Amino acid sequence: MWREPTHCQVQELGLACAAPAFAVAGNLRYGVDFTANCSPTAELAILAELLLRGPQSLGELRGHASRMHNLESLEGVQEILKGMMVAQAESQVLVKEVPPPPGSRGQRYVQLLCPTLHRLDVARVEEAPESTPEPGKVEKLEAQVAALNAAVRELAKKLGEGEPRLVD
Prior knowledge:
Radius of gyration: 31 Å
CATH superfamily of the largest domain: Winged helix-like DNA-binding domain superfamily/Winged helix DNA-binding domain
Structural class: alpha+beta
Largest sheet: 3 strands, antiparallel
Oligomer: single chain
CATH topology of the largest domain: Arc Repressor Mutant, subunit A
Strand content: 5-15%
Low-confidence stretches: 32-38, 122-127
């Protein structure tokens, strides 16, 4: 379950600062100075997509982030992501690679500015337990079918119908 981060957590991430004195008490001014972390171009578009939509594959990132910045190829997006996965000078690592969910092939990427924003524990496809019938259950069902077949034959005889076609 997602919980909204507290003001302190948002401030620790560097995503907000205290509001001016004339603002209502407890308000924060939200904003991000990306000049130290990434250029305000392709990196910012990719980071925005990861923050908004959660973990995505290379193709999804290219498709979605291309609406904000022209991303030429998957290789280009991969190079940008590699740069965002390495801490540089005073900046933190912005993105990490996560394993694909079950039934998917491609690796996915997730933002690290607010790691608890999106769930990474994808529900795994549970295998159906092997069905082993209870001892004696099959025999019980076969007896019930035989009794029902006898009842149907008796009804057909009383109604003057011919022999019904039953599965034995």
